[in-house]
Amino acid sequence: MVEARARGYFGIGAEGVSKSANIxxxxxxxxxxxxxxxxxxxxxxxxxxxxxADTADTPSHVPMWRYPTLAEVSLPRGCALVGxxxxxxxxxxxxxxxxxxxxxxxxxxxxxxxDALLERCDHVIRIPTRFSLNLAVAGALVLYDxxxxxxxxxxxxxxxxxxxxxxxxxxxxxxxxRKTIPDWLHADAKKP
Length: 192
Description:
alpha/beta
């Protein structure tokens, strides 16, 4: 399950996208990867039409913020805004270190993110492709890359195939007691 493996939190959203099915697919993608919230900026989409692509009914399970304008956007403190845009000076996704807490935002395929939003972004990244991708596909690639960085998975093998070693168990340290340690917790004692 994603929530058990991923560190930090993220949200995903779109600016100026008018196709409800594209927004629905993006919301479903965010929900599948464990988004803490979803948002839209200046989009005129129909939530009923979006449900044709969002069969997981994301707005019923994940907080959904609809901002009419960029000026109204409010993100949690410490949350970096990351624009996803096919710009020459953007950071290539394979070279990008994802912030622990981030809000990813995409724009429409033809127009892209507004200049005002790009200026507000803490980071702008690009998926190194020849041309723009569908909104949900681009979102899925970025969120998968985030999961690879912030998730907890076994190392990949040098050759083809899956991991050769099991993922080591998470170490949480020994329990702490305010008084004396119960006798049954000593290594040689049997549990009652």
